[in-house]
Amino acid sequence: MRFEEQRERLVEHELRLLGIRDEAVLRAMKEVPREAFVAEEMREFAYRNAPLAIGSGQTISQPLIVAHMAEALELAPDDKVLEIGAGSGYAAAVLSRIAKEVYTIERHRQLADTAAERLKRLGYENVEVRHGDGTRGWPEQAPFDAIVVAAGGPGIPSALLRQLSIGGRLVIPIGEELESQQLVRAVRRGEEDFEYDELGAVRFVPLIGEAGWPADEAIEKPTVSRGVVRPRLGLPDLIRDVAEPFESIEKLDFKPLLDRVGSARVVLIGEATHGTSEFYRIRAEITKALIERKDFNFVAVEADWPDAYRIHDFVTHKEREEPHAWEAFARFPTWMWRNHETLDFIHWLREHNLTRQASRRRVGFYGLDLYSLFTSIHRVLRYLEKVDPEAAEIARIRYGCLTPWEGDPANYGRAALTGRYRNCEAEAVRALQDLLKRRVDAAMRDGEELFDAQVNARLITDAEEYYRIMYYGSDESWNHRDTHMFRTMRLLLERYGDGAKAVIWAHNSHVGNAAATQFGKHGQLNIGQLCRQAFGAGAYLIGQGTDHGTVAAASLWEGAVEIKQVRPSHPDSYERAMHLTELNRFVLPLTKSKSPQLTAMLAKRRLERAIGVIYRPDTERQSHYFDASLPGQFDEWIWFDETSAVDPLTTLQAAEHEPAHPFAIIDR
Length: 668
Ligand code: SAH
Prior knowledge:
This protein is α/β, with parallel strands linked by helices. The strands form four sheets. Strands 10, 11, 12, 13, 14, 15, 16, 17 and 20 form a nine-stranded mixed β-sheet that branches. A seven-stranded mixed β-sheet has the order 5-4-3-6-7-8-9. S-adenosyl-L-homocysteine is lined by residues 58-61, 84-85, 87-88, 90-91, 105-108, 111, 133-135, 150-151, 205, 207-209, 212.
């Protein structure tokens, strides 16, 4: 990449995000070629946001710190500036693009000469370099509107304070140790009146001189390889302060998270994609902890009810007498649930449920979605045939209105809407009413089969409506779907009785309170929002995100699953801020954070990425980013900087399962 481009990226993608706001400073940083201030062999690193060696044991400061100090000086175009520690001359060049005149002093003669020659050659005519001890200032040119010291001293040299004009600003790193300092700003309010504030912890080479460190003491310490100078001002730094990093999912201590969940009744766990292994695995581990340590009663996921019910039967050890007539999780996108990550969890749950004697106490597994119109019709009819063949006949006639559209429910919606076909709403509703009138059949286990049939009948009425309103616009059908999911969850909570607790697994876009996103502004709602409204703090919302890696997704609807590369996150996104923490994995409390400052900074809207069952990297900005306010959406955020795709079951692997297994493939 050309240097100009690298410079542009450094400024736009890093400095801005790290908290630099002064446009004049950002412009100057974009103008000065940092590569011209370092040795030939260092040029390729010129735009790393890091300090670099410049000879004589000295360094050129990190771009961020140069920008940060320039910003703290609050320069005006007419200002006269003094710099102590010219080094390469780079910072002086930057300052010279913002202020009128710059005077800079360097104690190393060789560095001073090189800097003077270089600045002249590059055409910086308003900079003057002098060799000498900067702690005495430059009395001939005083007073200065701004003074900046690029080396760390034990205190503020009084000569420098004296050479400030009234209203002048002095920025200097000071500290009792040679190696670490506080960046301090002094403002001269009057002849003897100075105001001080601290700008953050930093790490500079020592200021050596009359009012600095004595030369011999400082020289004993190696001064070459400086650590990264890191002022604690940017969002990534604040995140790093609060984040709870973890080494691996297996080694994560869930205690702090569980403490924050507290007595919440519903815990919703989201994911930024439908195809990331880490999201599935940590979600499973959190869920296990909620089940084992907080007695959660069931898991309900963004999957079709009848399909997920196969898992429910499996994990609660309800082997059915007859083989299943249909294959579960067979519709697009099959990898979303038929994968090894989900398989591991349901096998764990099946084992876990053996420890629970009473079948009522067993932990259930359900689906909340409504894309199973016809499977649900078959399930209702199947149930009625068993318990009441006459009622089955009536239901069959009622649902007969819909059955011609099996395999193409979307076309039913369009045909009904344009009047080319009968609207089946009334029939579906009547069938549901008939089922709701039925009393719990004592012969059926706990009335469970009746409950299953009733939920299916509700699903049919909601799905029938869903396919009709799909054509009014996406907001309506989205809201209808999320409302259906929410109501199904409520039915389950009711069924489990007082104090029942649920874990919900769905995409971030369903889980994160929609009111805090751009969609909420347009009137979209989601399960997260409905839970927040219904349960308040009794709902705990967890989101998950990633910067880059691989993901399982299709290129178009009904398309084949592909393993795609996830692009590094957008510069204006939350993901980028997380990425810049340089932490690989962490849990970040948002609403229960110990740093209100962080929560406030995160609340400022940014972009957030959503990858669904389809991922189109080429149009990523338009198709996958939306704007949101993270702490408004979620109570907690889980971060994996790099992620990998879920591991879908191959047809062969699925076919190896016994027919009773929910992931079995049925021979047709
Ligand atoms: N601003 C420089 C980085 C400077 S590093 C750049 O952009 O490249 C700090 C510099 O301060 C070193 O070159 C060091 O030699 C110098 N220095 C330390 N004590 C000093 C003093 N008392 N007077 C002048 N320069 C000093």
